[in-house]
Specification:
By secondary structure, this protein is of the alpha+beta class. The strands form 5 sheets. The protein has a 10-stranded mixed beta sheet, with no helix packed on it. Strands 13-22-19-21-20-23 form a 6-stranded mixed beta barrel. Strands 11-12 form a two-stranded antiparallel sheet. It is globular, with a radius of gyration of 27 Å.
C-alpha cells in the first residue's frame, strides 16, 4: 500500500538537477542551491523556486521574515526518512532507497548520492543525505484498511538536529534494521486463499537498503505446480527437508510446506504408510502429482495461493526453490534488485525491465530445493514462468490451444523470441505480451490465484528476465509462514490413512483410524486387523 504522507518540510544540501523529461542538453539543467549558509531558509511567498539558476539564502542571514517552520513539523512519516527539497516540491527519501512525493506515491529511487527515475535514469546527482534533515517515523499503516494512524507529532530541536526529539539517522541500527515482521496477533490469521486480500491482514516490514552490502545473486523463474519438495519429511534433513525426529524440531522448521489436491484444496503432507499392517506402522509422504506412479491427477500439487503477491509498490513476497548449498526448507531471504541481470556484459546491457525493478525488495521463502539451482540463485515460483523439468500444471489447465512458452522461461521467453517484442523490446511490450498470455492460460480457469500471480510478474516484477540482486537471510514474515505451513500435518504423529488418489477429496474430515498405535501390545501387534480393514474400506 502507498504511504499517505502530508508534510511541510525544508531540506539542506547542494544538488544538480537533471531534467529527465526531455533531451539531455544543458538547457535542461537547473542549479538550485538551498541554504548553504548557517541560517534557516524559506521560500519567499509568490516567488517560483523552480526557476533556472535560482539561489535561496546563500549567505548567513535570513532570506525572508516569514516564520520558519521546525523541519519535521507537519510531517507524517511511516518510517524514518530524510526530507529533500527538489525546488519544485518535497520528497521523502527512505532508508530502503525508495523516494515518495508528498502524497506517498513512489516517484524515484535513491542510491549512492543519486536520485533516479523508476526506469533508472539519474535526475538528481550529488545528494548528500548527511546534510538533510531527518525525521523519525510517527505513524503506522493499518494493515487492514491502509489508513495512516499518527502516533505522535514529529518535532526537531533546531539546535541539535540529532537529538531524540524526533530526528534520527536512518542509516543507524535503529533506523534500518528490519522491524518485527511476524504477526503480533495471539491468534493465527485466518487466510481466505486470496493473497491480495490476505496480505492486508499483516503488518508491513521496514527493510534497510542492502544494495552494495549484501551477497550477489539472481532470479530464475518457474511454476511446475508439483507438490513442493518441502512438503516431504525426512529424519536426517535430506536435501534440506523438514525433520520429524522430534516435535520441537519439526515446529522450528515451520512444519512442512502446504500441499493441495488438483482442486486446490489443502490435503495432508504425510499420512500413515500405504503398507500399514498389523505388525508394522509408519508414515508416508502424500503422492506427488509430478513423480508418483499412481494416477498423477490424484497426487499433490502446489497450493495456488503460494503465487507471489505485492505488499506495496516496493515490497513483495514469494516462494522459491533454493540451492541446497544456500538454504533449507522454511528459510527466508531478503532480496533487493540492483537494476541489472545475470550474464550482463558491455554488449548485452540491462534492459528497461531490469532498470524499472531497481531498488525494489522481495522477501522469499524456500518451499523447494533445486538440484540445478546454484548458490545465491533463487528460482522464483511464478505462474507462467515455465515448468522446468516437471509439469503438473497442464493437469490443472487442460483447455486446448494454450501457448505455454518455453519450458525454461515460460511466457516472457516466448515474448522475447517472437516478432511482437524481440529480445530488445520495450518494458510496455513485454508487460502487455506476458499479460495477454496470462489471460489466455488462466483467465477463465478455476485457479484465479494463477492469474493474479502471472499478472504480478508483469506489473510488479516489471517482466524482468533473470534480474540480479543483493540478498541476506532474514526472519520469515508471518504471511509467508502462514502460506507455507501445513495446517493438517502439524504433529509428527498421524491417524490419517494413506490415499493414492486425493482428487475426490472436497474438504472436511479425513479417513482416519484408531486401529493402530506406535506402542505394540503384549502380542507385539501395532494394529487391530479387523478395525484397520474396516477403516481402509472407507472412501471419499
Amino acid at each position: 500500500m502507498k504511504r499517505k504522507l502530508f508534510k511541510t518540510m525544508i531540506a539542506a544540501g547542494a544538488v544538480s538537477m537533471i531534467c529527465a523529461c526531455g533531451d539531455d542538453t544543458a538547457s535542461n539543467t537547473t542549479n538550485v542551491i538551498i541554504n548553504q549558509g548557517g541560517s534557516s531558509a524559506s521560500v519567499i511567498p509568490g516567488e517560483n523556486p523552480t526557476s533556472s539558476n535560482a539561489t535561496i539564502n546563500e549567505g548567513g542571514s535570513s532570506a525572508s521574515t516569514a516564520p520558519v517552520p521546525t523541519p519535521c513539523d507537519g510531517v507524517v512519516a511511516t518510517a524514518d526518512a530524510w526530507l529533500f527539497d527538489t525546488g519544485a516540491g518535497y520528497w521523502m527519501i527512505y532508508a530502503d532507497g525508495t523516494v515518495t512525493d508528498v502524497a506517498g506515491n513512489l516517484v524515484a529511487f535513491y542510491d549512492a548520492g543519486v536520485i533516479m527515475t523508476l526506469e533508472g535514469a539519474p535526475i538528481v546527482n550529488g545528494v548528500d543525505i548527511n546534510s538533510l534533515t531527518t525525521c523519525k517515523a510517527n505513524a503506522t499503516v493499518d494493515p487492514g484498511t491502509g489508513e495512516v494512524i499518527v502516533q505522535s507529532s514529529s518535532s526537531t530541536d533546531p539546535l541539535n538536529p540529532t537529538s531524540s526529539t524526533g530526528v534520527v539517522d536512518p542509516t543507524s541500527s535503529t533506523g534500518t534494521e528490519p522491524v518485527e515482521i511476524s504477526s503480533s496477533s495471539a491468534e493465527p490469521v485466518k487466510t481466505t486463499g486470496n493473497p491480495e486480500e490476505d496480505i492486508k491482514k499483516y503488518p508491513v516490514p521496514t527493510l534497510k537498503n542492502i544494495l552494495g552490502n549484501g551477497t550477489s545473486g539472481w532470479n530464475t523463474r518457474y511454476w511446475d505446480a508439483c507438490k513442493p519438495h518441502c512438503s516431504q519429511t525426512s529424519t536426517d534433513g535430506e536435501e534440506g527437508k523438514p525433520k520429524i525426529n522430534t516435535q520441537a524440531e519439526y515446529e522450528a522448521s515451520h512444519y512442512t510446506a502446504r500441499v493441495c489436491n488438483i482442486n486446490d484444496i489443502e490435503i495432508p503432507t504425510f499420512t500413515y504408510s500405504k503398507g500399514l499392517e498389523r505388525y508394522w506402522v509408519g508414515i508416508q509422504n502424500t503422492p506427488n502429482a509430478c513423480q508418483e506412479a499412481d494416477p498423477a491427477s490424484g497426487g499433490g500439487f502446489t497450493c495456488t495461493d503460494m503465487a507471489p503477491v505485492a505488499v506495496n509498490d516496493t515490497l513483495a513476497y514469494a516462494f522459491v526453490a533454493g540451492s541446497d548449498a544456500t538454504t533449507s526448507c522454511g528459510k527466508c531471504f531478503h532480496l533487493q534488485y540492483d537494476g541489472s541481470f545475470h550474464d550482463a556484459s558491455a554488449n548485452n546491457g540491462a534492459k528497461p525491465t531490469h532498470k524499472a525493478l531497481k531498488g525494489k525488495h522481495i522477501i522469499v521463502m524456500a518451499s523447494n530445493i533445486g538440484h540445478d539451482v546454484k548458490p545465491g540463485q533463487f528460482d522464483l515460483m511464478v505462474p507462467g514462468g515455465g515448468p522446468g523439468i516437471f509439469n503438473a500444471l497442464q493437469l490443472q489447465i487442460t483447455k486446448p490451444g494454450i501457448e505455454w512458452g518455453a519450458t525454461y522461461g515460460g511466457f516472457l521467453t516466448y515474448c522475447q523470441n517472437n516478432d511482437k517484442c524481440g529480445y530488445d523490446g520495450t518494458l510496455e511490450c513485454y508487460q502487455s505480451c506476458v499479460k495477454d498470455m496470462c489471460d489466455a492460460a488462466f483467465g477463465d480457469s478455476n485457479y484465479p490465484n494463477l492469474l493474479r500471480g502471472c499478472h504480478w510478474f508483469a506489473d510488479w516484477f516489471m517482466a524482468a528476465d533473470n534480474p540480479t540482486y543483493q540478498w541476506e537471510e532474514v526472519e520469515c514474515p508471518q504471511y509467508l509462514v502462514d502460506k507455507y505451513s501445513t495446517t493438517i500435518s502439524t504433529s509428527i504423529e498421524t491417524k490419517i490413512l494413506f490415499q493414492s488418489d486425493w482428487s475426490k477429496y472436497k474438504g472436511g474430515d479425513f479417513i482416519t483410524t484408531d486401529a493402530c498405535s506406535k506402542t505394540p501390545n503384549a502380542q507385539g501387534e501395532y494394529c487391530d486387523p479387523e478395525q484397520l480393514a474396516a477403516d481402509k474400506a472407507k472412501t471419499y
